[in-house]
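Help needed: design a sequence for this.
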């Protein structure tokens, strides 16, 4: 793996990222709104998802076609700015520090409309966001969150690389892993490994991803979540550094603190993800390869 997992931690332990994560989660909704306004709705809501762009350290929307080429909107973590891109090049950026959501919406709408796209500000999100002053018209305040936003970027960078390696290992499965996406509702980056060719809600699958933190854990964590849900009474032993999470969702989980305690972080984390995925497949009665 190219990413150096030992760049994580240090002066920014996982539990210190909550405020920065909430700021970024709220800001990412402008990327989702722009996509919802300008892309055809997908049944799984993937049109509103974002992709990790390692070169820009940004979460960027799926391409939005215009007469002058495809446009993407993104959230750049380093420098904390909304960006508009064409063919991978940044056309313009809006620094969010000390600015409100109203100002961000006015800026992004002016850019979208100038490019012949529909505005984002009027889009209503079909989910509730975590409570934060930004959602109540307060300005984004990055005065004490700059280092933490950079750390969140590193968590996304390392996780995206690791999850793409995981996807490549299981590309022969059918229907197999979906593209890696960041979902604006939960702010997690994940792939869904589909194990049955079926549109039924009960179709077997395993979700594999990284959340930068949420109401379950106030720090980043990896999860491997089989579906349909395994009977809690039948849960098998997990290899270190994992445990079973059973409240709300069921999944094999390892937290940021657990990951930073590993001797060989990246390789051992990938080994845990692979092992937990195999356990999930076994209990679903589906071969993992």
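Sure. Designed sequence:
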């Amino acid at each position: 793996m190219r990413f150096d997992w030992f760049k994580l931690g240090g002066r920014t332990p996982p539990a210190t990222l909550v405020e920065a994560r909430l700021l970024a989660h709220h800001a990412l909704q402008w990327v989702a709104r722009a996509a919802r306004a300008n892309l055809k709705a997908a049944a799984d809501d993937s049109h509103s998802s974002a992709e990790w762009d390692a070169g820009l350290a940004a979460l960027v929307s799926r391409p939005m076609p215009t007469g002058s080429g495809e446009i993407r909107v993104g959230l750049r973590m380093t420098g904390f700015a909304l960006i508009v891109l064409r063919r991978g090049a940044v056309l313009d950026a809006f620094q969010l520090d000390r600015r409100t959501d109203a100002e961000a919406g006015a800026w992004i709408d002016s850019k979208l409309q100038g490019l012949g796209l529909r505005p984002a500000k009027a889009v209503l999100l079909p989910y509730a966001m975590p409570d934060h002053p930004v959602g109540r018209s307060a300005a984004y305040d990055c005065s004490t969150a700059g280092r933490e936003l950079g750390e969140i970027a590193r968590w996304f960078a390392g996780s995206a690389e690791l999850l793409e390696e995981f996807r490549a290992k299981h590309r022969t499965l059918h229907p197999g892993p979906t593209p890696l996406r960041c979902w604006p509702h939960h702010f997690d980056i994940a792939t869904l490994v589909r194990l049955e060719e079926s549109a039924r809600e009960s179709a077997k699958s395993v979700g594999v991803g990284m959340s930068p933190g949420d109401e379950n854990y106030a720090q980043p964590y990896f999860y491997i979540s089989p579906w349909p849900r395994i009977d809690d009474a039948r849960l098998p032993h997990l290899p270190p550094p994992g445990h079973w999470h059973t409240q709300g969702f069921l999944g094999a989980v390892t937290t940021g603190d657990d990951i930073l305690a590993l001797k060989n972080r990246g390789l051992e984390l990938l080994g845990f993800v692979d092992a937990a995925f195999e356990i999930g497949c076994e209990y679903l009665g589906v071969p993992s390869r």
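The first helix runs from residue 18 to 38.
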